[in-house]
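Predict structure. Chain length: 84.
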Amino acid sequence: MKFSGAYPNPAINVVYVDYSIPEPINNTSIVITNMLGLKVKEVNLGDRSGKARIAVTDLINGIYFYSLVADDQLLLTRKFIVRR
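Prediction complete.
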């Protein structure tokens, strides 16, 4: 499994995450939460590998956490910053 650090970090308009999900996992997404733990965005991943492009223009400046969720299981969490 591959789940890269978000880049660019800090992000201005968009952030990218490289990922590779092994078989037999089916439903995968990246869930973004704010510092209070509230979900602010979710991006479904349609392919087993690739580069997720996540627009952050609707997020205010601050620190966010992004988590890889597969088949309703939290696998990994990292953080990124939005700064304009």
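Summary: The mean pLDDT is 94.
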